[in-house]
Amino acid sequence: MTISEDQLKTWGKQGPTAQFTATYGTLMACLNDNGSPYYPKDFNIFLQGSYKNDTNVYGDSDVDVVIRLNQTFFTDLTNLPEEDKKLWNAARSGADYTLDQFKKDVTGWLVKKYGSDVQPGTKAIYIKGNGNRRNADVLVCCKHRRYTRFKSFSDQNYQEGISFFNSSGVRIDNFPMQHRDHCTKKHQDSKNWFKHTARVYKNLRNSMIKNKLIEDGLAPSYFIEGMLWNVPLDRFGGTEQQNFRDTLDWLWKVDRSKFVCANDLYYLFHPTSLVTWRAEKCEKFLSKAIDHYNAA
């Protein structure tokens, strides 16, 4: 016996969004308040995660909000020729307003507004839900540039992302906009199956956690989306059963070592990177998914 067609169809539906929308609106107004100490600075507020990517499922709770300082940025010069690195180092200048100061100002402002509901997290500032306001994570970051060319500030090429520091002081660079854009294109190219399928896999994961088949945290939503982004378009579609079997069968049998994240700027698997999945965790997830599907 396998998971029924109706169950897979239900799992593919997007979860409710009304409370999420209200929470985001409340946080946006708070973070954008002209009374905040950072208000005169150049910053943007936007969403990331399942709600932003339309892959949220029933039971998703946290709203992921990003507040990004635009006037300050960190760089990755790894791909620059030595001459370009020299030109960059000659042209660069220090930031007048640092990310560290920005985070202190944002944190202080949130504490002033939400009091003890605000708690520091490993990566983001956690705001406990209250009433109709859902739990939220506010990631304070600045811009990031992964350079591929630098001759001058009027002659340069780079991929733009975000940089932030975790609670251990380690800088993390990532590319949420590219992730979002690539997932949207994959969804369109797959005739609207990609995000549907991502929600199926997330619900399957939640079912396995509930039944104690896998531990919570084994397969974060971001990595499930990245994994599925590598699946060829011809594996999506048909009936719910066919779509799930074809994607899962391909994922299990293929050499996954060269999979890339949906942002197409990192490999999906790495043994130590803070922005990638562990290959053994993906293998365990897929193995348990096959067992759970067949035993349901």
Quick tags:
19% strand; 296 residues; 41% helix; 7-stranded mixed β-sheet; Beta Polymerase, domain 2; single chain; alpha+beta
Give the strand tally: 7
CATH topology (level 3) name of the largest domain: Beta Polymerase, domain 2
CATH class bucket of the largest domain: Alpha Beta
Q: Could you state the CATH homologous superfamily of the largest domain?
A: Beta Polymerase, domain 2
- Which architecture of the largest domain would the CATH scheme give at its second level? 2-Layer Sandwich
Describe what you observe in this structure.
The protein is an alpha+beta fold and about 300 residues long. The protein folds into two domains: about 20-175, 2-Layer Sandwich (Beta Polymerase, domain 2); about 180-295, no CATH class. It contains ten helices and seven strands. The chain has helices at about 5-10, 20-30, 50-55, 80-90, 100-115, 175-190, 195-210, 220-230, 240-255, 280-295, and strands at about 45, 65-75, 120, 125, 135-150, 155-165, 170-175. Strands 1, 2, 3, 4, 5, 6 and 7 form a seven-stranded mixed beta sheet that branches. The longest helix has 17 residues, at about 195-210. The protein is globular. It starts with a helix and ends with a helix. The model has no long low-confidence stretch (mean pLDDT about 95).
